[in-house]
Amino acid sequence: VKNPSTDVFDIAIIGGGLAGLSLATRLAAPKFQHLRVVVLEPRTQYVRDRTWCYWADKCSADAGVNRSHSHPFQTSVAVRWPSWEVMCGVAGTPSYEVVTKTGQHCYEMIPADRFYDDAERLIGSTAHVKIMKGVTLVGAVDKSENVELDTSMGKIRVGLVFDSRPPATLSKAAWVQRFQGFELETETPIFDVNRATLMDFSITADADSKAGRVHFIYVLPLSDRLALVEDTWFAPVEDGCDDVDYQTQIKAYLKRRFGLERYDVLHREQGALPMDPELKPAKSSGRIIKIGAGGGMARASSGYAFFETQRACDAIAEKLSTQKILPTEFRLPRWRGAMSYWMDAVFLRVLKEYPSLAPKIFFDLFAKVPPDALARFLSGVATPLDVARVVSACPKVPFLKAAFFPR
Ligand SMILES: Cc1cc2nc3c(=O)[nH]c(=O)nc-3n(C[C@H](O)[C@H](O)[C@H](O)COP(=O)(O)OP(=O)(O)OC[C@H]3O[C@@H](n4cnc5c(N)ncnc54)[C@H](O)[C@@H]3O)c2cc1C
After folding, report:
1. Which of 34, 145, 305, 340 is paired with 223 by a 20 to 30 Å CA distance?
2. Whether 119 contacts 24, CB under 8 Å
C-alpha cells in the first residue's frame, strides 16, 4: 500500500463495503476522469462475509437489460428465483398456510465475494480511482478549503468525503435483525431451485412473541442439493437475543420440513443488521457526507440495503456529473420518499406493540398484495397504487394507533 500522504485526491470514500464500492464503481466511469478518487478500506482482503438478496424487475437471463432499475454488478448475480413463498401457522395443523407468488420480478442473490471481485475489476480498469486496503480512518476535520483525514497511514487532504462507516450508535426506536445460518449440501435432491422460502413463521413459538421478538427461517435453494438457510430474529435494540440457539433451531426445522438429518455445511454466515428509523439521509452535510446504512440507505423495516444503495449511488453520481467544480456543500439527492421512512417507523412500532401479529401481518402482505407491487414497495420504488395496496393489506387498528397515537 502506498503512503496516502504523498497523494492528492478530490474525493475520498471511507469504507470499501457495499456503499463505498458501489459509489466508487460509478465514479470509475470515464466522465469522472477529471476527479482523483480514493477508497480507504481497513480490510486487506475481501472474503464472502455476506450474501445480498433483493428484488429485480423483469426476471430474465438478460442480466439486467431493459430493467427500470439496474446496477453494474450483474455478473455477480449467482441465483434468480422467479417465485417465492411465505408460511405461517403451526406445521401439520389446519392453521398452517403457505402463499406462493410469481410475478414480473425475481428475487436475486449476490454472494459478497463475487460483488467485491466485480467492483475491484471495474475500478481496477481505471487510473483515476484507487482502492487503498489496510487503511483505517481515525478522524476527519472539515476545514474551510478541504477535509483533513487522519488515517492509519498518515494525513490526507481531500475535497469531498463520502463516509460509509457503519453507524456508531442506534436510536432507542431501533430494532436489530439477527441471523445465523449456513449453506448446506444434501446427498439427494430435495430443494426446488425455482422457489425461495422468504419467511417461514411456522418456526415461531409462543415464547418468541411473548419475548417481543419476531422469528422466522428462510431457505434459499442454490440447486436441488444446495441451499442457504438462516434462522432470523427481529428484536428491539436493547434485546441482544443472547439466549437464542440458532443452530438448534435450524436443525429442528430441516428435520421437520425436509426430513433432513445429514448434510454438509459448506459456508457459515451471520449478521446483526440495524433496523433504525432514525437513520435517514442527512439534509445538509458540508464536505463530509454519510452514505451506506448509516446514511439512510438501509430499510428500517427489513435491514435490506443492496437495492437502495445502488439507486442512491446512481443518484449521487448523477448529481456529481452535473457539477463543474467540487461543491463545498453537497446535499444528498433524494432516492426514496420521506413517506416510506415514516411508514417503516410505524411498522416497527406495530411490531413492538403487537409482536404476536407479526407472522400474520407479513403473511397477509405476501398473500394479498400483488407480487410486483409488493416487490416495488419493499425495494423503495412503490407507486401510489402500490402503497395503497400495502396499506389495505395491513390490519387497520394497530397501524392507525402506531401512526397517530405512538406510545
Ligand atoms: C450477513 C449479512 C447478510 C445481509 N443480507 C442482506 C440482503 O440479503 N439484502 C440486503 O439488501 N441487505 C443485506 N444485508 C444488509 C446490508 O446490505 C449490508 O449490511 C451492507 O453491507 C451495508 O452496506 P454499507 O456500505 O453501509 O456497510 P458495509 O458493507 O459494512 O461497509 C462499511 C465499510 O466501512 C469500513 N470501515 C469500518 N470502519 C472504518 C474506518 N474506521 N475507516 C475506514 N473504513 C472503515 C468497513 O471495513 C466496511 O468495508 C446483509 C448484511 C449482512 C451482514
Report:
1. 305
2. yes
* Residue 43 near ligand 1, beta carbon < 6 Å: yes
136-152: buried (b, 16+ CB within 10 Å) or exposed (e) per residue? ebeebeeeeebbebebe
- Average pLDDT of the residues of the chain: 92
Indicate whether residue 111 lines ligand 1 (CB < 6 A): no
Render pLDDT for 235-266 as a digit per residue (tens, 0 to 9): 999 999 999 999 999 999 999 999 999 999 99
Q: Is 328 helix (H, G, I), strand (E, B) or coil?
A: coil
pLDDT digits (tens, 9 = 90+) for 45-83: 999 999 999 999 876 555 555 566 789 999 999 999 999
Q: How far apart are CA 97 and CA 337, in angstroms?
A: 34
Tell which residue, 77, 15, 71, 75, has the closest CA to residue 46.
15
Is the beta carbon of 151 within 6 A of some atom in ligand 1?
Answer: no
Q: State the CB neighbour count (10 A cutoff) for residue 1.
A: 11
Residue 200 CA to residue 85 CA, distance in Å, equals 8
Instruction: Give the H/E segment covering residue 13.
Output: strand 9-14
Centre of ligand 1 to C-alpha 317, Å, is 20
* pLDDT tens digit sequence for 265-315: 999 999 999 999 999 998 877 899 999 999 999 999 999 999 999 999 999
**116 CB under 6 A from ligand 1?**
no
| CB count in 10 Å sphere of residue 193 | 17
The residue contributing the CA closest to ligand 1 atom 49 is: 17
Name every residue whose Cβ is closer than 8 Å to that of residue 295 and which is 6 or more positions away in sequence: 19, 163, 164, 279, 281, 282, 289, 312, 332
Nearest in space to 17 (alpha carbons), one of 264, 376, 309, 403? 309
Residue 328 clears pLDDT 90, i.e. is over it: no
Mean pLDDT across the stretch 93-99? Answer: 94
DSSP 394: S
- Give, as one character, the DSSP assignment of residue 383: -
With cell 448446506, the residue in question is: 184
- DSSP H or E run through 68: none
Radius of gyration, alpha carbons of the chain:
22
